[in-house]
Amino acid sequence: MNLKTEEALSKVPEVTLVFWIIKILATTLGETGGDALSMSMNLGYLLSTGIFAAVFLAAVIVQIRARRFHPAIYWTTIIATTTVGTTLADFADRSLGIGYAGGATLLFGLLMASLALWYRTLGSVSIDTVGSPRSESFYWMTIMFSQTLGTALGDWTADSAGLGYEGGALVFGVLLALIAAAYYRTTISRTVLFWAAFILTRPLGAVVGDLLDKPVHAGGLDLSRFGASAVLLSAIVVFVAAFRQRPARLSH
Predict the structure, then answer these.
(1) pTM for the structure as a whole
(2) Nearest-angstrom CA–CA distance, 113 and 109
(3) Is the pLDDT at 242 greater than 60, yes or no?
């Protein structure tokens, strides 16, 4: 398979520092954007989840049908997963009353089941094998569960564990730093490290998003959810436009 064929089939970006910066911005946007719809506009968690789920499904269909990697389409789909993940986790944790710990446990089980089914079906969960509609479907299903889990995990850390938003951000920031160190200094599977980092960027974004828009008495900065979301979206657009992202190389 030559390079042009690989680029034509691979529709996920190469994992670089820019990738992780945009991912964290997108997960933070998911928190502020999800809260803007469900709380600021008073649509509630269920209706907001339905709206974001429709956007997510539409984005995934466009992404899978695309013939090559389009950064704008890819990151639109990522943002869609993180916004629906926010409202879905909030609905499960708060409206259904299963709590942050219960929600995180349930979602962790679904995430592990998704990865196990993907591996059992296709033999690998590495991003350098995501080059077919089938593997893309598993990829986006796994991401959807990871984004939803991240919201519940972030809320559990900040609220139930009593660390607050700053404490939660510090914990997840340190964990991500340890994963980065493991990437450069150990032989741990790069696929395992990728998914660990991918999962942990979501609760980091969740607690940072809550820090930005939650009331001061709750430990937040009480910034406008719409304003914060606009700034985060603008930053994502700038990074996508300013830094050329290449598609990931497909394994032979």
Answers:
(1) 0.90
(2) 6
(3) yes
- Give the residue ranges of DSSP H helices in 156-189: 164-185
User: In which residue are the tokens 């497909």 written?
Assistant: 250
For the segment 72-130, what is each residue's pLDDT rounded down to a tens digit? 999 999 999 999 998 998 888 788 878 778 888 888 999 999 999 999 999 999 998 89
Q: Is 247 helix (H, G, I), strand (E, B) or coil?
A: strand
Q: State how far the Cα of 69 lies from the Cα of 71, in Å rounded to an integer.
A: 6
Which two tokens mark 192?
A: 């395992």
Q: Phi/psi of residue 66, each to 5°?
A: -60, 145
Backbone angles phi, psi at 215, to 5 degrees: -60, 155
pLDDT in tens, 159-201: 888 899 999 999 999 999 999 999 999 999 999 999 999 999 9
44: left (phi over 0), alpha (psi -120 to 50) or beta: left
